[in-house]
Amino acid sequence: MSVTAAQGFTAAGIAAGIKAPFISGSGGNPDLALVVNNGPRLAAAGVFTSNRVKAAPVVWSEQVLKGGTVSAVVLNSGGANACTGPLGFQDTHATAEKAAEALGHNAGEVAVASTGLIGLRLPMDKLLPGIDRAAAELTEHGGEKAAIAIKTTDSVHKTAVVTREGWTVGGMAKGAGMLAPGLATMLVVLTTDADVPAAGLDTALRAATRTTFDRVDSDGCMSTNDTVLLLASGASGVVPDTAAFAEAVREVCDDLARQLIGDAEGASKDIRIEVVGAASEDDAVEVGRSIARNNLLKCAIHGEDPNWGRVLSAIGTTSAVFEPDQLNVAINDIWVCKNGSVGEDRELVDMRYREVRITADLAAGTESAVIWANDLTADYVHENSAYSS
What we know:
α2 (85-103) runs parallel beside α3 (124-136) and α7 packs across α9. A hairpin with a 2-residue loop joins β12 (334-338) and β13 (341-342). Mean pLDDT is 92; it is low at 22-26 and 178-184. Helix content is 31%, strand content 23%. The chain has ten helices and 15 strands. By secondary structure, the protein is of the alpha+beta class.
């Protein structure tokens, strides 16, 4: 049930005609979602792309979240509304105003999120009437339809739910390409019926995204539109233990992040890169990201070639603390590199299955980090070469 698994939330997902093809009166591709917090609490927190080029909905929603209150979220696929100038920002403002009018809310408490092609204005003549239709279709069972409506190149919609004694955290996500920190190219809405104030939501969300969405690195490309929102209705009446709540949020984010990598455009392998023995967590993350973004290695993984030399070369480009003659690398638990040189027989590495595990031991400390990536395929190149044509 996604974002409507928690009490106090309704949602809808419709085909407004933002995405082509669309024939009036015959339905079409779902492309507009609405999520509403019916309270009694309207607390919210959010994290957004760290790209300096930000889409209009990101700029708007960042301002909304400063108040710590969100009563509704409008999300569309079929257009990013990024790099559209002042008129694009006016379109986002009009979207929030329309939702507020339809719901009887304050526009300053309506977040907006968009995803799709950069550099094109949204068809407001379709989007605004669509908000009225979505508002009329809101239901406590509408979470799945909302998750479907925010897909772009996603092959499947992505939802996750964690239930604890008396309260729930649920969420939906979209994302299949342009996946790299900070965040990933994605829209995520998380909801909970736990009674948690905005400050508590912010703490839990930032801790969760730091080790989940921020460590998904599919293609090294950072989006202009990344948005992750966490809304609390307080409808359960339960004030959860702080640590328990943070862990539940992390579990939902981790589940959704894994689904993002599993649906990465054209991918045939999911690559789990674990860096151990690092002098600091920052070193571990830097090394993991360098390995994840090495296109030669990604090609080797696609070809089921345990080419560990490409792992070492990626490590060597970083500023992490290590000695080259102390590096160790395992691929699917076979230590193919020991002390910076030849280790176990690479022919022992079985790479037939979807998940490939790379372990890089820097032998420089006790810190570690996990980064998720995927292989580089001809399908990825094809899909992204034809994305806007």
